[in-house]
């Protein structure tokens, strides 16, 4: 476990300079490593100093939400912040929450050697992702020895002989699950509770999140909220895009709006689950007329070479064959997403996913496969065969079919 922790620390150290105070100071920014509190909607107090500004951006991130389960605090738990600082690998681990963080870390620790149980109140894992593709991930987790308990509520937590005991209720009846350690991965809470938002005339909603419009403005138009604090999409790449938009609007007066329709995301499980745009379920919920095209990775030669044929791609199309969304479950699915992102953002048609000549063999062949599979009925049918027979008859009789009996 200590070697695992050291590896993670070395990676963080290698990239940390991008976010270091020294880098931002070298770029001319003032950096205060202290808590800030609003005095009014144009003033913030930090270290006893009052800083005023025409515009203010709130980007305070989020932390793991801890559910109010009786006995949980007394029994002790960890979150994603502490899990890779453990001095030794827990022999058993119960994960509360089967979203991306819970599933990713659960699979990770199962592979390191912990006996892992995933518990969630939702009826399935990865509830924000396509249900059919999430089931592919669930089957892999179960094949690796992970126990999944969906639709379960943790009634209370207790300890006995150093072991944490969780009393559950749900469709599978009442049961007790034991583990050495509990990982809480049941959603996030915005880090806004100490900002004194009332002084700025801003209200935080459920979970501490601050509502914004498509320009990322709060109820005070000169105060922007980006990243996890606005509760839209808790992803690093979304925070980066929102920050860029805020800079363009404030510093460059360039305008612009955020387009959450084209937010991509990846659950870094094995296999990965990548998504952009509408899924089958979300298209139905939005009342969109759509059809679904599926392509198995069993048709991709590279998938056979990698032993990854269980992968599946689903494409959501509108009634004009334009791509509304793409979901992929496959080894390295996140690396396959750029073509889908371009299609959704450009409102391209299915045929445009065939992006020309690709090196062989690669997993990206899946795009050409799905286009070919959809177009083949148009090219190989009785009408086309009749036309081809007519054309060949015009051009010649072709080779004779006489049989030589000698």
- Give the strand content: 15-25%
Rg over CA atoms, rounded to whole Å, is 27 Å
Shape: globular
**What is the H/E string?**
HHEEEEEHEHEHEEEEEEEHEEHEHEEHHH
What are the low-pLDDT stretches, counting only 5+ consecutive residues below 50? 401-406
Account of the 3D structure:
The chain is built from 11 helices and 19 strands. The longest helix has 15 residues, at 236-250. By secondary structure, it is of the alpha+beta class. The protein folds into 3 domains: 32-59 and 189-258, FAD/NAD(P)-binding domain; 72-186, FAD/NAD(P)-binding domain (3-Layer(bba) Sandwich); 262-379, FAD/NAD-linked reductase, C-terminal dimerisation domain (Enolase-like, domain 1), CATH 3.30.390.30. The chain has helices spanning 2-15, 21-26, 72-75, 100-112, 131-143, 236-250, 280-285, 301-306, 337-345, 365-379, 382-395; strands spanning 36-40, 43-46, 49-52, 56-58, 62-64, 92-96, 115-119, 147-149, 153-160, 163-169, 175-179, 181-184, 188-190, 223-225, 264-267, 272-277, 291-296, 312-317, 323-330. The strands form 6 sheets. It has a 5-stranded antiparallel sheet with strand order 15-16-19-18-17, with helices on both faces. The chain is globular. Residues 401-406 have low confidence and may be disordered. It starts with a helix and ends in an 11-residue tail after the last helix.
Task: Note the main attributes of this structure.
406 residues; alpha+beta; FAD/NAD(P)-binding domain; five-stranded antiparallel sheet; four-stranded parallel sheet; 11 helices; 28% helix; 23% strand
Quick summary:
This protein is α+β, with helices and mostly antiparallel strands and 406 residues long. Helix content is 28%, strand content 23%. Residues 401-406 have low confidence and may be disordered.
